Queue: 2 jobs
Job 1
Amino acid sequence: MANINPGFPLQRKAATIAAVAGVLLVAGGGLVSCGRTIQPGNVGVKIRTLGPSAGVDPTPLSSGYHFNLLGERIVEFPVIQRTYAYTKERNDDGPENEELTFSDNNALPMTADVQLVMRIDPSKAPALYTRYRLTFDQIFEGPLRNDVRSAIAAETELVSVEYLYKGGRQTVVQKALARVNRKWSPQGVEVSQLDWIGTIRYPQVILDSIQAKTKADADASAAQAQVAVAKAQADAKIEQARGDAESNRLLAQSIASNPEVVQLRAIEKWDGHLPQVTGGSVPFINLDRK
């Protein structure tokens, strides 16, 4: 008669339970690993690559944990205000040269660094991804940068380099901001600020020319000021001479009509002593007048 081990069913049962637990543990881990947590301040866009509903889900995902099924992934878009700088030198936004190039109405080339402040409308994040198939940073670095450069170039091509150099660059960058928003605002990207970082980098020959012209204008203004001063001084002398002549004319007229004025003035100046030598002439003051 065969020897039957009474513990065999129990061992088999325990092995089965362990196997099931292992499967559940792996499955549970798989479910957890296939999810994603969307951080506060971000919005999620779900992309499906399998099944009849493949494509971008039009409903944005709020912050929190979301499961991903087979063939699904989530892309995050920040919806809080962000600042991005396009600069020649390396910065926190990237190591590459992202300076903008443009020219004036005479095709004189220039470059500059700019900075923009923007945010994305959460409700339009899925449509934004559907159109460009780019992440948030890729939109900054690609199509948005291209449109900022094009907008600035379109405005600078309408003015001269002298206009930009003498303060017109602020007007130009604000007009460029309006151009950018006309395209991007309907798509859910609102650029609230667009500013120059530092000064525009002009060719040295242009700087030398502008500075020479500025000096020439200053010298011409100084010369005109000197001419104006000299003319004012000459006019003052002429007016003084006219005043003296008119005074003399009036005095002569007064003496001619009143001879006693001469006698009166002589008396006013006389010290009371008669001349020691008169030469037989009559004293110059008529002492007999009453």
Job 2
Amino acid sequence: MIAPTEDAARGPRGPVALTLLAVVAACVFAGFIALGNWQVRRLAWKTTLIAHVEQRVHAAPVAPPAPNEWAHVTADADEYRHVQLSGVLLNDRQTFVWTATDEGSGFWVMTPLRMADGTIVMINRGYAPTDWCGRDGHCAAGPTDEVTITGLLRMSEPQGFLRHNDPAHDSWYTRDVAAMAAARGLSNVAPYFVDADAAPPHGNQPSWPEGGKTILNFPNNHLSYLITWYLLALMTLVASIYVGYDEYRLRSTKRG
């Protein structure tokens, strides 16, 4: 006696099972397509953002947003804008933020700059190593005369996920402008800070703080993501067609 084949033993699926499979396949297919379409929009957004940032970084410096514009400053519209501002550095109100760069571990030297109209903008004068600042972060003060600074506008950084700022102990891990201003008793402070450009070299020795350390790196993996989602949608479609054909073949065999 010949044993029935697996297809014959199983037989065609019932209408309820087929309907359920069709609904699940349609939902999965639609979900993958939606995710792929979302990545298409993200790719367009990221490509435009990178182009705008490149344009801002290499443009001639302009005045930073004035107080009446602060409420409308956003990362998409303003971050990495090349700005120029003049004023007096408030060296006694500096904040030293722990960081790690290609130079090693050290501090961002954040110094408030008071402009002629009384507006204060936090200036990231750059990176300084711990052996220059000392273990307690007592970095040397900056210039006392009026200075003109060019640099890139950056948005205030929120609290870190793993390490939190501790203003009471003057321990800082993120460049949170509002928190630094409150800790130093400052008012009329811009909601952004400025990464100072690199200063011209003076001899062979590094000049601390060292500006121009802004990292301009924008991962753009959206093309690979959208290809992945669309391939999964195609695989779902092919699998659905195969199941449909298999059911058709089983029913034809049963009728025969």
